[in-house]
Design a protein that fits this description.
Blueprint: E1 10-19, E2 22-30, E3 38-39, E4 42-43, H1 48-63, H2 71-79, H3 94-97, H4 111-114, H5 118-139, E5 153-157, E6 160-164, H6 171-192, H7 195-198, H8 203-208, H9 220-233, H10 252-260, H11 268-285, H12 288-320, H13 325-341, H14 357-367, H15 380-391, H16 398-402
Antiparallel strand pairs: 1-2, 3-4, 5-6
């Protein structure tokens, strides 16, 4: 049955163009003020699965700082099951424990990058497990030891205490910032905004005829777009998503807010939000060219967030190398995770990843390779060179990203 759209946005007929005996109506699609869409009075926006995974990731990263945790308990949070595949209840919230979703299942799982690349996908999933295991076996066991070159333990960062491995790396920061790319960004730009996903099977024909999913108010194409939106705004204020940028979660939403706070990128959050709204409105209006234009804009802007923060942390850490080793290592650990996340970034109008696996591995090797003790031996010019190499792939400069 064909559904009737509530006019949450407006389609303006701006003219009739004669083409032989046919009249073609040209329309302009105008996005709504907020990301809100309805059909027959029912809300059509749904991204509960994305909200669930963000909440799971929050608990996982928080648990890594709890040294009463075990390797098994962290892995159970990651996979939402035990090593034998049995249901467990690893989270503090019942809504997460009863869910069949998990963080691990969606890490490096996009259709564009990993559908035919299962070897790398598995390696990335396993990398997170390795970091969690090392946090318990290397860092937690040395939590009362003062860290030194080659020795894991605690290090002061002003009034805070950080816990690092023998090379100065905070594993919890590596996990948190790598999830931004490996889960959130990968699912947004390489999966749900992919034409391969949006136009999968009969999605376009069903959207043309407003055929909704069973017992739902949305078409499959609408839902895919909303799921992309959910990995950025899934825990934000649903009344005004934009005003809450930076406070929605500890992942992509948080760091979009941080980038927005830099005057060089002050409009980025609004530009992203507007592209999400207009792209969704275009789907309702069945304007797939406009949809794809907005998807390309989003791929570029969201990828920029990763690149900007990678450079930012390298440059900020450089300032603290002599005066505050703990602060420098904390920033370098965040930068390490954002560099790892570069594997998942895209550029507008491209079907390929912006950085290859070899390029990202090369950055990390260089970051840890000025001596045998990783961050303890790092040189400022190394941070500058990596920063320049990263920025050269984007449309911003090191100077713009550094402050």
């Amino acid at each position: 049955m064909k559904a009737i759209l509530n006019t949450m946005f407006t389609l303006f007929v701006i003219g009739l163009v004669s083409c032989g005996n046919d009249d073609v109506a040209e329309i302009t699609v105008t996005a709504p003020a907020q990301y809100q869409f309805e059909r027959n009075g029912a809300n059509t926006v749904s991204f509960s699965g994305q909200t669930t995974r963000i909440m799971m990731a929050e608990e996982l990263v928080s648990a890594m700082s709890d040294f009463d945790q075990s390797v098994e308990s962290l892995n159970e949070m990651y996979a939402n099951m035990d090593a034998l595949g049995n249901d467990v209840a690893p989270f503090s919230q019942d809504v997460l424990n009863i869910s069949t979703k998990s963080v691990r299942s969606k890490v490096a799982a996009s259709k564009d990058l990993f559908n035919t690349n299962s070897v790398e996908s598995l390696a990335i999933k396993s990398q997170f497990e390795d970091w969690m295991q090392a946090q318990i076996n290397e860092v937690a066991t040395n939590q009362d030891v003062l860290a030194n070159p080659g020795v894991a333990g605690q290090i002061a960062d002003g009034t805070k205490t950080r816990f690092i491995n023998a090379n100065g790396l905070e594993y919890n920061q590596a996990v948190a910032k790598s999830l931004i790319g490996g889960l959130m960004l990968d699912q947004i730009v390489n999966n749900y905004l992919s034409i391969t996903v949006l136009d999968d099977k009969d999605n376009r024909a069903e959207n043309d005829n407003e055929i909704t999913e069973e017992a739902q108010s949305y078409t499959t194409m609408e839902h895919k777009w909303d799921e992309a939106f959910g990995y950025l705004f899934g825990t934000a204020d649903a009344i005004d998503y934009l005003s809450n940028v930076g406070g929605g979660d500890s992942f992509l939403n948080k760091y979009l807010g941080r980038v927005k706070g830099d005057e060089d990128f002050s409009t980025i959050a609004e530009d992203i939000y507007n592209a999400f709204k207009l792209g969704r409105a275009a789907i309702v209006a069945k304007d797939y060219n406009l949809r794809d234009e907005q998807a390309d804009i989003l791929k570029g802007l969201l990828s920029n967030v990763i690149g900007i923060r990678a450079v930012y942390y390298l440059q900020q850490s450089k300032i603290q190398l002599d005066s505050n080793k703990g602060g420098a290592f904390h920033g370098l650990s965040e930068g390490y995770g954002f560099i790892y996340s570069l594997r998942f970034v895209r550029s507008s109008n491209s079907t390929d990843a912006l950085f290859s696996r070899d390029e990202v591995d090369g950055f990390i090797s260089t970051l840890m390779g000025d001596g045998t003790n990783g961050f303890w031996d790092i040189r400022p010019n190394t941070l500058d060179q990596i920063s320049e190499d990263i920025a050269s792939k984007f449309d911003f400069t090191v100077a713009q990203a550094a402050d």
